[in-house]
Every structure is written in structure tokens, then in C-alpha cells.
Design goal:
The complex is a heterodimer of chains A (196) and B (100).
Chain A (H helix, E strand, L loop, with lengths): L17 H26 L10 H4 L2 H26 L3 H31 L8 H32 L8 H27 L2
Chain B lengths: L8 H23 L7 H20 L7 H33 L2
Helix pairs in contact in B: 1-2
Classes of the chains: A mainly alpha (196), B mainly alpha (100).
Chain lengths: 196, 100
């Protein structure tokens, strides 16, 4: 067990950091957002009147690699947090950058996948599968994009010496966001790609 | 109700290894025709297992205050209820309409 620095804490009457509490509440609200999008996808599943249909376009080996990439980015994120918490900013900077790069690889994969689908004739308004698929995975991709920008901002701050052990909670909150994006993908990978 | 220490680097690496193995099992189950009769429940259980691992160890909910678990778990259960309810309502209405 490593110690958990609590510098710059804004304590609530419950003894918990207010920023962390607010962020968990935000993540809770995000559960409802993605819950509604996943519901919409499932309700309209198999209801498309024209193709392309999911089994004709979804590429499981490619998406499995994207899933592996996002899981490894979560590992890099916890390693970055652990390094910042013990004051090892050299490792902290390295793992923050690795996390952001893995996020960019995921986004590149999603861009390629969307381009491929459009070439196959699946647009946003082609059929119910296209509409629900692009809205669900696109919203997730937008979240990944925000996460990558957030990570790169922290990395630049670390390079300029403005991020250290005392700001460990900032890195932890970034990590909460990043891991949430990862768990949403875990669900999407199963519900959209594997259960066709 | 206090925030506590997190896991070690070794634990993080072990969790990553388990996540990768479970993902490989998921993809394997998808490609093996013998599993197709139980594909949906098996995949849902494996996915829930991965979800739990990330939330408990990487998001530190196992070590943090239970209030954070409440803030996350409450809306998560509500979201699950929304998914299940909508599926029942939609497919129930569909069955009534088609007489199935």
C-alpha cells in the first residue's frame, strides 16, 4: 500500500475532498447518459430495414485491438498516478504521455473504422443501426478526445514544473475520468461488437 | 468514511493481465460456435467482471470512501434499470403488436 497524498484538499463536512466527490457525482450522471444511449442502441437493434447490417461491417479483430489499447491506457494512467503520488515526476510525465498516446491510437482507430463504414455505405442516416451506432460510439469517442486533451494539458504542466506530488489529486481525478471512459468501452465492446 | 491508501504497482499489473486475458476469452467465445447458445450470458458476465475490476482497482473504489461507491453505484443501478425497462417495454409492445 502506498500513501495517498491529500495536499490541497478541499474537505467537506464528511471529511472527503469536495472536488473528488463532485467528480464522482459527475461520473454518476455520465452513467445515465451512456445508459440512455446504450438503451437506444439495444431497442433499435435488428430493426434496420436496409443494410449495411452490423455483421457485414463490424471488424472484431480490429476492435479487439482497440479494446486492448484502451485497457493498456488505463494501466498507464494508474502508473502515472502512482508515480506522481510518490513524487517521481520523471515516471509521472512518461506515463501521462503514454496514456495520451494510447488514447490517440484509439481515436485514430475509430476514425479509420468510421471512414471504412462510410465507404461501405453506412452513414448516420442510412438506417437505425447507423444512427444508433454512430451516436453511441461517437459520444464515447468525444469523451476520449476530451480525455486526451486533458492528459496532454497535464503533461505540459508537468513539463513546465507546475505539476508535482502536491497536485496528485488533480491527476487522480483525471484518472477517474479516463478509467470511466475505459469501462464504458468495455460495455460497448460487448453490447455492440460481440453480441450481434 | 475517509479516503484510504491505493493498491500497489504489482496489483495494477496483475489487474491489467487479468483484463487482457478476459478480453481474449471474450473474443475466443465469440468465434467458437459451440458457445453460441450461451454467448450472451457468458459475454455479459465477463464484461461485468472487467467493469468491476477497473472500477474497484483502477478507480480505487475498493480503497476509497463508501460514499463515492454510493455516488457511482446509485446512478449506475438507475441506468441499468432504464436499459432493462426500455427493453421490456419495447419488446413487450412489439410482441403484443405482432401477436408473438
Amino acid at each position: 500500500m502506498t500513501p495517498h497524498p491529500v495536499a490541497h484538499a478541499h474537505r467537506t463536512s464528511m471529511g472527503l475532498d469536495s472536488r473528488k466527490m463532485a467528480f464522482w457525482a459527475f461520473i454518476g450522471s455520465e452513467c445515465l447518459l451512456f445508459g440512455s444511449l446504450i438503451s437506444t442502441y439495444l431497442v433499435y437493434k435488428g430493426r434496420s430495414l436496409v443494410g449495411p447490417y452490423p455483421h457485414e461491417v463490424l471488424n472484431i479483430p480490429f476492435t479487439s485491438f482497440s479494446t486492448f489499447d484502451l485497457l493498456m491506457s488505463s494501466l498507464a494512467m494508474v502508473l502515472a498516478l502512482a508515480a506522481v503520488q510518490r513524487g517521481d515526476m520523471k515516471q509521472g510525465k512518461l506515463w501521462l504521455l503514454v496514456t495520451a498516446l494510447l488514447g490517440m491510437v484509439f481515436l485514430g482507430g475509430q476514425f479509420w473504422e468510421f471512414s471504412h463504414f462510410v465507404r461501405e455505405g453506412l452513414g448516420l442516416t442510412t438506417n437505425l443501426f447507423g444512427s444508433t451506432f454512430y451516436v453511441l460510439t461517437g459520444t464515447h469517442g468525444a469523451h476520449v478526445t476530451v480525455g486526451v486533451i486533458w492528459l496532454l494539458t497535464l503533461w505540459v504542466q508537468a513539463l513546465r514544473g507546475k505539476l508535482g506530488q502536491r497536485q496528485a489529486l488533480t491527476v487522480e481525478i483525471t484518472g477517474l475520468y479516463w478509467h470511466f471512459v475505459d469501462v464504458v468501452w468495455i460495455v460497448i465492446f460487448t453490447v455492440v461488437y460481440l453480441i450481434q | 468514511m475517509s479516503e484510504q491508501a491505493h493498491a500497489t504497482t504489482g496489483t495494477y499489473l496483475r489487474v491489467a493481465a487479468i483484463l487482457v486475458m478476459v478480453t481474449l476469452i471474450e473474443v475466443g467465445v465469440f468465434y467458437v460456435p459451440a458457445f453460441h447458445t450461451v454467448l450472451v450470458p457468458v459475454l455479459l458476465v465477463l464484461s461485468a467482471f472487467k467493469f468491476t475490476l477497473v472500477v474497484m482497482f483502477y478507480m480505487h473504489l475498493k480503497f476509497d470512501s463508501r460514499f463515492f461507491a454510493f455516488l457511482f453505484g446509485g446512478p449506475l443501478l438507475l441506468a441499468l434499470a432504464v436499459v432493462v425497462s426500455l427493453l421490456f417495454i419495447f419488446y413487450g409492445a412489439l410482441r403484443l403488436r405482432t401477436g408473438g
